[in-house]
Description:
It is built from five helices and eight strands. By secondary structure, the chain is α/β, with parallel strands linked by helices. The model has no long low-confidence stretch (mean pLDDT 85).
Amino acid sequence: MKTFDRSRFILMFTCALLVSAALAAGTARAEQKTDAQKASDKIKQERVELLNIPLVWKPTVTISALGAIDLSAFQNAKITIKPFTDLRLKPSEIGKNVEKRMSEKGLLVTTRDNVAAWVTDKFGLILREFDVPVVTEGGGMAIEADIVKFFVTEESTYKADVGLKIRLKSKTGDVVWEGMIAVTNKRWGNSYKADNYYELLSNSCIDVVQNLLKNDSFIQAVQKNK
Length: 226
């Protein structure tokens, strides 16, 4: 008959408890993620959302809240907006997150929409909100433009750069004015959020039109050719 070895039982029981505790601790550590890992996972999920996203008109400023502009030169004028041309090398790219903590390579923001068509449409919309007479056809003058810049860089802040090379044409098709209108806008915002890109690009389009309407040589060309 075997005798009960109490010491051996206690030793084996203790070892089992230690192994169980070690396994539990290992599992807990495996399940736990650092803040950096969680942020990385979140960015990976959001990255999908910011590839081939639609362009959304989302300004945070209103035309009525902007300073007054003398629009007397546009009385009795009729302006047609011709389709703009996108001269950028990568038309689908509209932004990039370059924060080192987010990704060593940076995170692109791309759109599936036609940027040139979108900017053309919004340019006409903004002019109308400024009470500039815009017509779809039969205008005495026409505006056309080349998109040179249309991009948001996100680092410590969001920074948008939008630039249009704009031409004003007479009824006969002659270029009566040409100039580069470029603006830069900055704002704070949560990292890699589509709304922040939308808001800055929309606000910058408004600024481009506003700066055009304040341009003395452009106003003179309108007065001479309306």
